Amino acid sequence: MTPFDDMFADISRTLSLSRQQAHQAIQASMVQMYWEIGRMLAQRRAQGMPLDEDSGELCDLARSLARECDRTFSVHTLLQMHTFHTLFPKPEDLSPQLSWAHYRLLMKVANPQARQWYLRRAIALCWSSAQLAQSISARQYENAPERVADKGSSREVEALAAQSAAREAEDPGRDVHVLGFLGLSRPKPEGDLKKALVGRVQDYLLGLGLERGFCLVARQKPMRCRGREFCPDLVFYHRLLRCHVLVEVEIDAEREDATHHGVDRLGTHMKLMDILYRKDDERQTMGMLLCSQAHGACATYVLPESEQAAIASRYATVLPTTEALCQMLARERKLVEDLSEQE
Questions:
Q1: Are residues 62 and 161 both part of a single domain?
Q2: Which domain holds residue 44?
Q3: Which residue has the higher pLDDT, 284 or 65?
Q4: How far, in Å, are 78, 145, 213, 248 from residue 285 at the CA level?
Q5: Do 62 and 170 have their domain in common?
Q6: For the segment 28-49, what is each residue's pLDDT rounded down to a tens digit?
Q7: pLDDT by residue (tens digit) across 58-75?
Q8: Contact at 8 Å (CB) between 124 and 149?
Q9: Are residues 160 and 201 in the same domain?
């Protein structure tokens, strides 16, 4: 190894360490800021301000914050911050090792004991947010023979910490929350209005929490049959209903045409999903068709014929209402269009 190689390796290590430290400092500041905003919202709620998705005051606040301060703000993110403060009411409850992505995942764990178990384990084993998400999805708390974090050797923990920090700090420019926090412009969206709304719908359904049953399987999942490829916008697995849920988003089509053609297309996707992926003990795939127009929205559930009679008794208790979906779609479209005007 030449002196040049030595110097290059030293500078590379220094640069990597500095990036990791900067990213961790940014994430810690973000978490503290979101907790503080949650505290402010809790105070306003105690004074009588309604905190729900239908609150006009909260919608106006989110729109103003997104326009003037940080484009990642939305009604959903504000409600997340309030929940964050509620679940972690003391500043000393926060860990500088955990990012906002970690806490968003922890907030979806309804069981307080499980939430604390995952939190302690993420800190002890220096998990990345992806590792935490995998652990929660695998229900490690419920399946663990002993509800204690693995200790491991100090060398193993140090290695995990280095790998985790490297992954999380690999490219902070891809994290829109970091960009918004720093007051920087986010990258131009790759797609059109539909892609942006599909992302908002995905966040909304996942934001309902694990207790509502939605688990993301894939986005634009390709399915092939007889030489043709079908790609539903979103594929979820509903763990309470024990079935797949396909979501299609239509933009600016005539309502009757969108509903007619969308239902037909969803029906094809649902049948194909059952053929390729449904297990014998699972229910048939269902669909969710969301149509967004410039001045309104409509939502329709598409059920297999054998499940039509079950909508009131089984599905309606765990799925969002079509009215709630329409309100969400109209609200998110307006926010996306307002943000696009500021680009």
A1: yes
A2: 3-181
A3: 284
A4: 33, 34, 15, 13
A5: yes
A6: 888 999 999 999 999 988 888 8
A7: 888 888 887 777 666 788
A8: yes
A9: no
